[in-house]
């Protein structure tokens, strides 16, 4: 892939990866579906523990397998998470969704940095890594901020749409 095409894809990925509308209202969605605050805390604890436990094994997998495929699969896992939440809004459904969300985040966390550096190495432009990575983080934060705004607005109409749009981003 040519470097300009990669950069366009990279910046779009960074934006869309964090343009998740449900981030603004997920706890409200859980409570609306009868999940107690203790259960919400339990779900978040399991999500954090699962993410922690999967971080190293998925990093090893990314080093041994195709990094681009890991990123694609990670995005698919996010879509699966939010689809499960939409179809099975129960404690068990949210728990299974959080496991997929943990897989999604650990499949992409260090993988994207390594993949970006790999592409820059192919083009002999490693010197641009920090600049490109910083710009990518700006796109990521922009996606996160706009996701929160639109998530709040869309949730006034329907949590269903919030989850559908989150799963499709």
Describe the model:
It is a single chain. With 169 residues, the chain is an all-alpha fold. 82% of the residues lie in helices and 0% in strands. The chain is built from eight helices and no strands. The protein has helices at 3-18, 26-32, 37-64, 67-87, 91-108, 111-122, 129-155, 159-168. Helix 1 packs parallel to helix 7 (129-155), helix 3 packs parallel to helix 5 (91-108) and helix 4 runs antiparallel to helix 6. It is globular and about 55 Å long. 31% of the residues are buried.
- Roughly what fraction of the amino acids lie in strands? under 5%
What value does the average pLDDT take? 93
Kindly state the number of beta strands: 0
Gross morphology: globular
Q: What characterizes the major β-sheet?
A: none
Helix/strand order? HHHHHHHH
Helix content: over 70%
Q: Output the radius of gyration.
A: 17 Å
End-to-end distance, in Å?
23 Å
Count of individual helical segments: 8
Task: Give the helix/strand class.
Answer: mainly alpha
Unreliable stretches covering 5 or more consecutive residues? none
Task: Outline the fold blueprint.
Layout: H1 3-18, H2 26-32, H3 37-64, H4 67-87, H5 91-108, H6 111-122, H7 129-155, H8 159-168
Helix pairs in contact: 1-7, 3-5, 4-5, 4-6, 4-8
């Amino acid at each position: 892939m040519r470097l300009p095409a990669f950069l366009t894809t990279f910046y779009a990925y960074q934006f869309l990866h964090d343009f998740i509308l449900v981030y603004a209202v997920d706890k409200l969605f859980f409570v609306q579906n009868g999940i107690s605050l203790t259960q919400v805390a339990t779900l978040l604890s399991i999500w954090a523990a699962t993410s922690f436990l999967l971080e190293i094994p998925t990093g090893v997998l990314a080093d041994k397998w195709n990094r681009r495929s890991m990123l694609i699969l990670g995005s698919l896992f996010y879509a699966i998470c939010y689809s499960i939440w939409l179809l099975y809004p129960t404690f068990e459904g949210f728990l299974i969704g959080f496991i997929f969300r943990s897989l999604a985040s650990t499949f992409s966390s260090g993988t994207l940095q390594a993949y970006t550096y790999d592409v820059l190495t192919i083009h002999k432009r490693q010197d641009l890594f920090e600049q490109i990575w910083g710009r990518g983080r700006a796109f990521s934060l922009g996606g996160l901020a706009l996701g929160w705004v639109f998530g709040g607005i869309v949730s006034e109409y329907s949590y269903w749409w919030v989850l559908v749009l989150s799963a499709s981003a």
